[in-house]
Each structure stands twice: as C-alpha cells, then as structure tokens.
Write a structure and sequence with these properties.
By secondary structure, the chain is α/β, with parallel strands linked by helices. The protein has 2 domains: 116 residues, Rossmann fold; 82 residues, Alpha-Beta Plaits, CATH 3.30.70. The protein has 7 helices and 11 strands. It has a 6-stranded parallel beta sheet, sandwiched between helices. A 5-stranded antiparallel beta sheet has the order 7-8-11-9-10, covered by helices on one side. The radius of gyration is 22 Å and the shape is elongated.
Length: 220
C-alpha cells in the first residue's frame, strides 16, 4: 500500500515506522523540516516539506497514486482540510483524520471521513482501566466503541450455555478457551470451570456485561 502521512509528530513518525516494517510505501508531509529530525519517520520513508492541503505539495508526495492518506498533524482544522482534499479532489480510497475535539467527530463523519478522536478514545480507555482488570481488556476497536476481552468464567456461570450471555447488538461470546485449546461456541456449548471467554462488546454493553459477571445475591 502507498500511504501519505500528513504530520511528522510522535504519532505520524511511529505510524510511518510501523507501515515501513510491513513493506508499505510511505511518504510523510510536514510544514516544518525540523520535524523529520525530531521524530525520524524511519528508514525508507520519503519526506516532503510543505502544507498538507497544498495541491502542489500533495502531488509531489504522490497523492495521485496513493492508496491511503492519514492526517495526524497537531491541528484539527489542518487535518480535516487536508483529508477533504485527499478524499474529494484526489479520490484517495482510504482517508483518515485525527481530531482532538470529540465534538467535531459527528460533523466529519457526515463528510464520509473516518476520524480518530484521541481525547475521546483516551477518556474511554482510562475509565475501562479504572473499573476493569487490565489483563481482561485485550483490544479496543473503532475508537473504543468496540472491545475485545478475555475473561475467566466465574463460578456462578459454570454449567450455563455460552449463548445465554449474548445480548443482541451489544455482547457476543466469540470464543471459549479450554484446556490449552479453543473453539467458537454453538447453541449447545456449556461453560465449564477453568474456561476463559473471548468476548466482543460495545461500550453500551459494558454495564450489562458487568452485571452478568456478578454472582447473584446470596451466592458464593
């Protein structure tokens, strides 16, 4: 994949390095030439100095042949303007913009530009770490709206059908780890002592999930 990254800060630099490790072609654009020395984007990355929404700069970076464009500069306005240029003028197939103000996310989604709202995502992650064992949370997807967790089966759920824990649109038991192996549960799968559940849930399903994990009143 040929990817242009607008913004060579910590995020842009790290993203470039990881993409290069995956054998992708990467060009990094930043208005400050010193940024490439402060945060080197990795061996093999092309660097272009200039504004990420300037058409001449973008064309020098190879926007016409790009498969992806990621705007991760320090300014919301610069990110969204450059993302719109990449999407609407050059029709880059995959365009993503980072934003700091989560209140703008809905506006940008209407423009058909996926956004990563780092402030909102960070707040969600902090709350999850406060109220859940950090070993349980394995992955956050979709800006933190979707979570993958690995949870031991509590005693009060031993003998329960796995699909009894599913809640349509909010909670899905995606897998069960048992005795060094694993399987995707069917309607007949019964939970056993020592099982671990691989759970996918939405942020709106967390409270329901927590309630299911609590033993019933008077239980042990």
């Amino acid at each position: 994949m040929r990817v242009i990254i607008m913004g060579c800060g910590r995020v842009g630099s790290e993203l470039a390095s990881q993409l290069l490790e995956g054998d992708h072609e990467v060009t990094v654009v930043d208005k400050d030439a010193e940024a490439f020395f402060r945060y080197p984007p990795g061996d093999g990355a092309r660097t272009v100095v200039g504004l990420g929404f300037d058409r001449d700069v973008l064309e020098e970076a190879g926007i016409k042949e790009a498969d992806g464009f990621v705007a991760v500069s320090s300014g919301d306005n610069s990110n969204i303007v450059s993302a719109r240029v990449a999407l609407e003028l050059y029709h880059v197939p995959r365009v993503i913009a980072r934003i700091y103000d989560p209140r703008r996310a809905e506006i940008y989604e209407r423009l058909n530009i996926p956004t990563v709202a780092t402030t909102k995502w960070g707040v969600k992650q902090i709350q999850l770490m406060l109220f859940h064992d950090r070993q349980e949370i394995r992955e956050a997807i979709g800006g933190g709206d979707l979570l993958r967790m690995r949870v031991p089966v509590p005693e009060h759920l031993v003998g329960t059908k796995a699909d009894a824990l599913n809640v349509d649109g909010r909670i899905l038991i995606a897998g069960v780890s048992r005795g060094g192996g694993g399987f995707i549960p069917t309607s007949d799968s019964t939970l056993q002592d020592g099982d671990y559940l691989v759970v996918m849930l939405t942020k709106d399903g967390v409270e329901t999930w927590d309630a299911q994990m609590e033993p019933p009143a008077g239980g042990h």
